[in-house]
Amino acid sequence: MNVLLVEDERKIADFVCEGLGARGLTVEHVDNGHAGFQRASQGEFDVIVLDIMLPGRDGLSILGELRAKGNATPVILLTARNELGDRLQGLGLGADDYLAKPFYVEELDARINALVRRDRQSSLQVGEIRLDRVSREAVCHGQRVELTAREFSVLEYLMRSAGEVFTRGQILERVWGYDFDPQTNVVDVCIKRIRAKMDDLPGSEKGRTLIESVRGAGYRFRA
Question: Does 133 map to a domain?
């Protein structure tokens, strides 16, 4: 499990990195808001542990912009000010949990694991593509992608078994709910639209589409 810790107090950062590392978590630490936002925006982490009071840029502004850009990575806020206003503002901006300083690393570890368990039940992620099954939102390379209901369902179906080939008939039956009509091209059109929305995003590998066509068989999501 990969954790991003954005914390400027060295003592706190050291004991969190040591404590979580001893429990098998991989922790990357940055000590200022600007670097924290840059790393968090890249979407490489399972959880972000984010201090509110930071040099350069405060944690609430980081959180607000991450959510505005479609980054749905779970966030735990750390604050030395155990005030209701801070907690409410953070939760309103999209924080998943908060922890007031001082705290025990055992409690932070428990909250991280609880968030990841909850997140994995409500979301699906393969590589840089993340689907939120509750809000029906898709995020690619940290950017929200606007998908129709059909497009979301097709992408979810393929991602659930990444690397496996599905025929057009299987996709039709699962998403549209009727048997394969050899004259219809709705699957091909839908997948073409998904590709157009995702393959040109910054960070996508040029020439390597996420949904591959398998000649004579169907489609698969590249694992």
Answer: no
Whole-angstrom distance, CA of residue 140 vs CA of residue 138: 7
Cα 109 to chain centroid, rounded: 19
Q: Is the pTM of this model over 0.70?
A: no
CATH, residue 207? 1.10.10.10
Tokens encoding 135 = 């809000």
Q: What is the mean pLDDT of each run of 10 residues along the chain (223 residues)?
A: 94 96 94 95 87 94 88 87 73 89 94 85 84 84 86 90 88 73 81 87 65 92 84
CA gap 188, 192 in Å, rounded: 6
What's the domain range around 176?
A: 146-221
* Distance separating alpha carbons of residues 138 and 55, to the nearest angstrom: 32
127 domain-assigned: no
